[in-house]
Design a protein that fits this description.
Layout (H helix, E strand, L loop, with lengths): L4 E3 H7 L2 E8 L2 H4 L4 E15 L6 E14 L6 E16 L20 E4 L3 E3 H12 L38 H15 L1
Parallel strand pairs: 5-6
Antiparallel strand pairs: 1-7, 2-3, 3-4, 4-5
Amino acid sequence: MSAEFIDFKTIDEHGPQSYDGTYEVGVSELDRDELASVGSATIKTTVKQGDLDREYIADGTVSFTADLTCSRCAEPYPIANTSTFHVRFRPRPEASMENEEVEITDKEELDVEFYSDRVVPLRDLAMEQIQLSIPMKPLCDESCLGLCPVCGVNRSSEQCSCETSIVDDRWGALKSIRDELEKKKNV
């Protein structure tokens, strides 16, 4: 069923429901520095009642394409991502206010979303899952050599003749001890 909202009342009355949607996503909406561009996002999910009172469980997938900026070489590279998710929706605890954060006290609560309204925008769920799918330090390739700290050239595509062994002056005292030990060893 294509709908804009997950409606818990409908699930209470008619049982598990399937939802899907495709949304255009802007880079500014995700507010991530490593995101160069993003295409549309597609979400498919089935939502059913959970084991607890007023708990609902959403299982599904979200797919999107994007261009990420490599953390090492600063070059954009394309990705196509499809990830699965499992989210449990529970009513917001009585003592907490709408914008107040709810403290997570158990590792089983990491997949819990708290709701105040009995409808959840499907687009919001898709956006959240995209955020969780974007790596914290994206790499164009595991073997990316990154930028030269001296001249700034991309060392994965060009070679430079810069001296890259940078010595930390804080280790200078230990270097002199090592040199003295080497002298004693050679005597």
